[in-house]
Every structure is written in structure tokens, then in C-alpha cells.
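[worker-b] picked up task from shared queue
[worker-b] task type: protein-ligand structure
[worker-b] ligand name resolved to zinc ion; SMILES cross-checked against name lookup, match
[worker-b] sequence length check passed
[worker-b] input payload:
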Amino acid sequence: LAALPAGGPAPTDVILVGSSELSAPASPGPRRDLAYEVKVNQRDIEDVCICCGSLRVHTQHPLFEGGMCAPCKDKFLDCLFLYDDDGYQSYCSICCAGETLLICENPDCTRCYCFECVDTLVGPGTSGKAQALSNWVCFLCLPFPRSGLLQRRRKWRGCLKAFCDRESENPLETYKTVPVWKREPVRVLSLFGDIRRELVSLGFLENGSAPGRLKHLDDVTDVVRRDVEGWGPFDLVYGSTPPIGHACDHPPVWYLFQFHRILQYARPRPGSRQPFFWMFVDNLLLSQDDQTAATRFLEADPVTIQDVCGRAVRNAVHVWSNIPAVRSRHSALASCEELSLLAQDRQRTKPPAQGPAQLVKNCFLPLREYFKYFSTELTSSL
Ligand SMILES: [Zn+2]
Ligand SMILES: [Zn+2]
Ligand SMILES: [Zn+2]
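[worker-b] inference finished, payload out:
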């Protein structure tokens, strides 16, 4: 069994500003007393934060029985859907921090657990025993719901959705994650920029398989609702302003409005519970006013994702999306001035090493909780 350092290997091309503060270990003091409080003092575990041991409980932990304090709740919301380049979640599924992580070896699971949580909640020495096993399966995958003080919530997927809807400041709806046996391959509509290569490398599409899984369109001028409904249904709609070096037949904002128009055709009916995701990426072509229009039309705030080499920002994109955790990948190294200089520079110089689709690639990893994925370079190399 492999144990990973928390946060896994740092992504080489994108620096995540938030990740260092997010991985700060929870203070070990009160946590040591957690088992004592519950077992000896007979305190209800719902009245203790199972992430840090604090008694100032704000809400209930969505996955396991127990409470959660306000700071841990914020950390949990930020990190829950963050994935590393290896395809595993970056942080512990209990406390969303953790120094060293155990990874679940169920091939359909991507969860990690920190040694401290496992030793505190399941029993001292459990992490060592788990590490020695050749095939350790996590607390959400085990057939039985309880291990020591760690008790999986009944209907935890529903609890997780309710938790995100209730606690998140993000007004976008969260969809309930899908159990493995119900996951289907994702159906993608990709406009202007093609993301086939990225989705294949993440395992969402099989190389050379059913072409119906991804429909790519460069021009949508004549596309009407009937066309999109005929090609669909879709689970993910992607669009971008043209990558550098591509001929731009229209003003940049045209791509935004066309994306928005086609998105309306592709959306499931109102009230549908079907997970439906979208992403619009601007390769720094939209003006400030256009960006404001994008935020208004798409009803989501943009985040900036950068390709950084040393201190130099080599490329950056603005992303609007309802995929979980895109917000947590936000990096704010470059100022607005730097980005506008970068945008001007790029009109003159050769295309950047990483195109927009590559820059946002890891933002698609949370879709593993919703759609089937095939064996990939990521998983086969482990
Ligand atoms: Zn806490
Ligand atoms: Zn933990
Ligand atoms: Zn698992």
C-alpha cells in the first residue's frame, strides 16, 4: 500500500496558492482527547469536531457521524473535490488536511485518509496496520459501516449534497455524487476548443471508442435547439475563446454569447437531478466588460488559472464553471496588469507551451465522482 505525502506531488505547471495554507495540520492537542471525551466522558460524538477535536461544533460532518467546527467546515468545502495529478484526492476525507495519507485501493475510489484521523478515530496503530496491508479499502468502501468511533453516515451521498448546498456560499447547485455501479461514461459537447485529448488522458473517454461520446464543433452559427437536442443529451458542455494562433473569425465576446446560447439548449429540464456540468474558458481575449458580461450571463464568478515557470507567468486563463472545486484551484499570483501585459505579448510571440485545455485539465478530475472512467496513464502508472 502506498502512503502519499499530503497534497501529493505538487503539480509542476500550475502553482496553487491556496494549497500550502490548506495543508496546515490541525492542532494535535484537543484531538488527542476526542476518544476520551466520547468513550469516557460519554460525550455525543456529534458534539465534537471530528476533524480537530474542538467542542465548538458548527455543523455535522457529511460523511461520518460526528460534528464539525466552523473553520474545519470551510477547509472541508475548499478541499473536498481537490485532486492531485495522480488522480487521487489531495486531502484526507475526514479532516481535509493530513500529513501522510493512506489511499484507498478500491480501483473505483479516489479517497485518502490521514494517519492522524485513522489513529484517533478508529484506534491507535490502525494507520500502521493499514499501511502493511496489500489491499487496504477505505471506510466509505468497506461493507460494514463502523470502525471504532468512525461510523459512516447512512445515505452519505445525500448528506454531502445537503452539506454543500447548506454551507457553501457558492450559489450554484451541487449534484449528488453517483455510486460506482450507476456511473455512465460522460457525454460531452465541446465548442471552439477541443478537449478530447485531455478527457482521454484523464480516462473519461476511451481512445478510439464510440465517437458519440464527444461532439466537437468549431462553428455554431447555424446550430439551433433542435440540433443540440438531437445530438444530446450531454453531461458536460465546454467552450472557450479560440486558442492563440487560431484564426479568430469573430470578436472574442461572440464565443461567449454562442457558448451561452448553446448551453441553454443542452441543459436538462428544470428540476432534473441529472448532474450537468459546464465550463467556459477565456484565453485572455475578453475585455473587462466582456468578462463582466460572462459573469452575469453564466451566473458564476471567474477564477484565474496560471501556468507558472519560476516567477514568470507563461500562460493564464479565466474559467467560469459549475464543476466542484474549480474555485479552490484559483491562483492569484499575477496582478491584472501582468495578465493584460501577457495578453498583449501573446499577440506577438509564439503560442504558449500549455494551451487553455491543458491548463484546465485537472479541473475535470472531480467528475470522477459522477461519471465512469477507464484505465488511464494516471492509474496504470501507479
Ligand atoms: Zn474542527
Ligand atoms: Zn484527516
Ligand atoms: Zn474507498
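[worker-b] attaching auto-annotations
[worker-b] Residues 252-266 form the longest helix (15 residues).
[worker-b] releasing lock
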